[in-house]
Amino acid sequence: MPLSTRIHTMPLRVRYAETDAAGLAHHGSYPAWLEAARVEWLRAGGVSYADLEKQGYHLAVVEMRLRYIAPARFDDLLHVRIALVRARSREALFDYEIVSASEHPRQIATATTRHLSLHQGRLAPLPPALRAQLDTTGDAQGARAEEE
Amino acid sequence: MPLSTRIHTMPLRVRYAETDAAGLAHHGSYPAWLEAARVEWLRAGGVSYADLEKQGYHLAVVEMRLRYIAPARFDDLLHVRIALVRARSREALFDYEIVSASEHPRQIATATTRHLSLHQGRLAPLPPALRAQLDTTGDAQGARAEEE
Amino acid sequence: MPLSTRIHTMPLRVRYAETDAAGLAHHGSYPAWLEAARVEWLRAGGVSYADLEKQGYHLAVVEMRLRYIAPARFDDLLHVRIALVRARSREALFDYEIVSASEHPRQIATATTRHLSLHQGRLAPLPPALRAQLDTTGDAQGARAEEE
Amino acid sequence: MPLSTRIHTMPLRVRYAETDAAGLAHHGSYPAWLEAARVEWLRAGGVSYADLEKQGYHLAVVEMRLRYIAPARFDDLLHVRIALVRARSREALFDYEIVSASEHPRQIATATTRHLSLHQGRLAPLPPALRAQLDTTGDAQGARAEEE
Questions:
Q1: Residue A111 to chain D, least CA–CA distance (Å)
Q2: Which residues of chain D have pLDDT under 50?
C-alpha cells in the first residue's frame, strides 16, 4: 500500500485544564492532542472519522510513544504536525511533531502512534475511504512504506 | 418513592494529573470524583452501574452544581461523601460533600447532581435494581423526599 | 462597577478523548470548555490571562453550575457563548451558552461560573487590566450589574 | 547506582470519565494511572513525591511508551505493577504492567517512562531520599542497572 506523504498541521492552544502543578502542560495531555490531529489529518484528506465509526470502523491505538523535548505552558500556541508514515493492510503508523507556533519554532515533542484497523470489533483491512485517500495522495518512495 | 438516607464515603487521593498551574486540584477534576462516588454508592447498595448499563439503563447527568470552598492539592487524601437526597420515578438527585481525610476534616467542596433515568435512550422509570434498593434502605422522613 | 455586555463566541470541536462509553461528550469535559472560553473572552478584550497570572492574579472558580440540555457527540462543532454578567470589586460572574454550530443552533448546555479575584493568593480587587476593560466595554444597564 | 528490584502493585478502578465512545478505557487515560503508580511506588518506599516537590525536586517525564494489549472497560478493577528498572545519577526509568485484577490476570498494557531529575528547574542528581531508598532496597543484579 502506498505511503501518504501528506503532512497536516493542527494549531492548538494549551488549555489551563491541561496544565499541572509544575506549571507546565501535563505530559498526559498530549495524547488527546495527537488524537485531535489524526482526526484533522483525516478530514483534510476528505475522511470523517465520525463517519468511519458509524460504518463500524475503528483505528485502535495499540502503541504510543512520546518524547518530551521542551515544556509547553498554559496559553502557548502550538502546531501539531502529523503524517502517515506506514500503512499496511490492517495497520497504520503516524508520526507527530509538536512545535511552538512562532517564527522560529521550537520543538516541544515528537510522537508515534500505531493503530490496528477494526471493523465491528474484528481486525479488518483499513477502511476503503482511507485506502482510497492513500491511493491518491501517496507514493511509494517513503522510507517506511511497506506492502503486505 | 422513599428516600435513601444511606451515606457512602469514598476515599480519594488527588492525582498529579488532576492539578493545574495554580498548584491546586483543577476545578474540572471534581466531576469525575463525584461520578466515581456515585458508582461506589450504588455498589455499596448492591447495584453495579456497569450492569445497569448492560441492561440498557443510563443515569444521565442533567444538572451539576459545585461550590469550591477550600483548595485541594496534589496527593491530598480526601473523602467524598454522597447521599441520594431525592428520587422521583424518573429522576434522582445526589448531594456530595468533599472533605479532607483527617481527624479534623476541612470542607473542600459541596456539590449536587441531578439525573434523568434513561432506558435504551428514552426517559424511563429508575432501574428496578435501584428502586429495590431505595425500598429497603430508605425512609420517607427526609426533607427533600418526594413522591410523584 | 459597570457591567460588560460584550459577548464572545468560541468555536470548539468535541475531541474523542472528551467522549465517554455512553457515546456522548462526557459531562466532565465541559468545565475545560468554559474555562477556555473565559480565556478567549479576556483575550478578545485585550487581556491575557497568562499575563494576569504572571502578575500574581488568579480568578479562582468558587462556584460552577451546569445544565445539560441536549447531548453533544464526538466531532460535533459547538459554539461556546460567554458574557460577564456581574462584576463586583472582588468577584466576577460569567454566563455561558453552548450551542451547536449550525444554521439552526440547538442548545446543548447553559452554565454559570463565579470567581473570586486573588492576588498573591489573597482576596483582592479584580486586576486593573480587567477593570479597565469593563470601563470601556460595559454599561450599567444589565439586570445583574452590581456595585459594591 | 544500584537497581531497585522492588515491585509495587497499585489497584485501580476504571472511572466512567476515563472511557470513550468506543466503550473502552481511553488510551489517553493511562498516563495518569502510571503516574499515580509512581507516586505509590515512592510512598511504599517511604518517599513522598509531594515532599520532594516542596524541596524543589521534580522527576520530569521525558519519554513515555505504551503498548495497549487488551482493552479495559468501565468499572474494571486493574492492577498497575511498577518497578524502577534503571537509575543513573540524573535519570530514572520505570517499567509498568497493567493487568486485570482477577485470579487469572489478563495483560492489558505495558509501559515505560523515562525521567530526568530536576532541582529548582535545573538538571540535578536524583533526590537524596530516592537515592537512599535505592541503596537499601536495590541490588546490582538487574539486567538494566547502570552506573555512571
A1: 9
A2: 1, 138-148
